[in-house]
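Journal club side-thread
Mid-discussion, someone asked how the predicted structure for our own chain would compare to the paper's figures. Pasting it here so we can look after the session.
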Amino acid sequence: MSQWSQVQQLEIKFLEQVDQFYDDNFPMEIRHLLAQWIESQDWEAAANNEAMAMILLQNLIIQVDDQLDRVSQEKNLLLIHNLKRVKKLLQGKYHGNPMHIAVIISNCLREERRILAAASMPVQGPLEKSLQNSVVSERQRNVEHKVSAIKNSAQMTDQDVKYLEDLQEEFDFRYKTIQSLEQNDKNSALIKQEMLALQAMLNTLDYKRKEVLNKIGRVIHEIDMLMSNLLTEELLDWKRRQQIACIGGPLHGGLDQLQNCFTLLAESLFQVRRQLEKLDELLTRLTYDGDPIPVQRPQLLEKVNFLLYNLFRNSFVVERQPCMPTHPQRPMVLKTLIQFTVKLRLLIKLPELNYQIRVKATIDKNVSTVSNRRFVLCGTHVKAMNMDESANGSLSVEFRHLQPKEMKTSAGNKGNEGPHMVTEELHSISFETQVCLYGLTINLETSSLPVVMISNVSQLPNAWASIIWYNLSTNDPQNLSFFNNPPAATLSQLLEVLSWQFSSYVGRGLNSEQLNMLAEKLMGQQVSYNDYQLSWAKFCKEHLPGKSFTFWVWLEAILDLIKKHILPLWIDGYVMGFVSKEKERILLKDKTPGTFLLRFSESNLGGITFTWVDQLENGDVTFHSVEPYNKGRLAALPFADILRDYKVIMADNVPENPLKYLYPDIPKDKAFGKHYSCQPNEVSKPSDGGGKGYVPSVFIPVSKILNDCTEPHSPSDLLPMSPSVYAVLREHLSPTAIETAVS
């Protein structure tokens, strides 16, 4: 079943979540019509490879054309209209930046997998629940409402300033008219009456000046309060959501909404600044005793400039954290001399700033004692922000060709590169720029989340563990000494993050039973683990009891095994995986003989085995577990084929496949049939395969179980026997002869 088909079967509350991330950037019609094709492409790789992204974009447009031809024949007018609109969008919006559509589709597919994983969980995890509570949603709506009200107030004040200007011009004209009269004319009763009218007009001017200044003061106060409270909280929440998304959590949104709020506030502040400049202009033309403008205007202008400085400083954010294109699901782990990408955005989107802001990237700019290792950035490290590269028109800049290079120490050697010293050292990528606008010069700085520098890909698993632990445990964006004394993590939150590793990396998260097994492996047989605190050492540094590896190394090897060798089986949900030997026997003991389940080895790194239940002649139940298959064996023979062709030879019996039903009662061929590489026992002719007249051979996994042995021998005796030869053997030879042959 395709991923999209699974999505369509979700409950309405999950479908509403899916609806939130499909918009005009990637319409749901295309996701629906091209579901299988979209899921068969590697969008994650294309998101960091421009040539590959361009090919996929062109192929996507071709797929849309094919759908257009189909619906044109069906005369579906509405769908024809929508597909033409989508084609125009793809050609116009993404032609100059094909990687952006790859990022969008990759994120949508990933978010679908996360929602599917969440739907299989009995309850929402504590981290995800905290990020999606109703208080946060209410605050978002409150911020948008207040920003809109502030913008309206600033525009209304513009009308008041214009009225004040018109009133002063009328006063100025009438006053100068009187001043131009002869002295005798000034003493007339009519002129005296006009002077009284001018005095009344001056009083009105004074009142209006005070009123405008008060209104400007209220707008400034409302902006100040909004920036100090709600907007700051909203920005911090977005940064926290970004942290969680980086370690596999829910896709973080809301940056476009924040950009809209920041931009409207900046426009309002500049509008207020122009109003204060207009008041200064009116002041130069007319002033009087008790005039409020020279008293209040300097203070208001100073406050406006202060708010603009703070607004700009907070608006400079890292939109996409540093990430190597070769490892798109392991952000913030950077390898020396390997390119990485990072994207910055200025949330204040003003046309005047397009191509006017140059951003410089540096590494460990303000760090002197955290690490003994020193790095420099090679490649293009200065670029201009612009609105043309982003599909949504945001003011941003993306560095695509930066490389970290380690500098030699004074002793001539590189820094300490022990297995944990390197992967627990945190570094910072910093960015600085300067904004010059309307007479203001504002220096801006921001930094990435802490990154881990590795010099060998073998350090990647432990480096990623450090990234997970840091971003799970703290919302401090720059605590580079974090691992000097790493805090413990709540086990319930850690298990949620571990499930995210599976949903984001291999397409299916973990259910409650699988998480319970991991919890027991981490903390032993505990009654409850909701409030259990797990140390960093126990997660990543201390070996598991009786093993030569840590918990994290064991789990990472399983992720690698799934990704490279059993991904379709895992996505279909047929691999139970995380179940102890004791639990598997409880599950199987009452099942039909031949019922089996698949589980990951607890003693071998990156191994998978299967256990089946059998019944002896006396009625006793027995269990057999085959020696785990590792990536070496699975590279030679697909796991689905192993399950199909696996044979067991009991003493004096014909070889037969003991695997009948996948737990609980799914016929084996129904579960795995679509993953078989060819038809079972297919008889090959010499002309079908190997050249020079040879009959093609296949590997058949065979185990031999002796009368006094409940465990099969190692399946390493993969016999190079063609299906036709095996069929002939089984048809014409006695069981004893077959046993002799396979031995």
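Post-session note: DSSP finds 25 helices and 20 strands in the chain.
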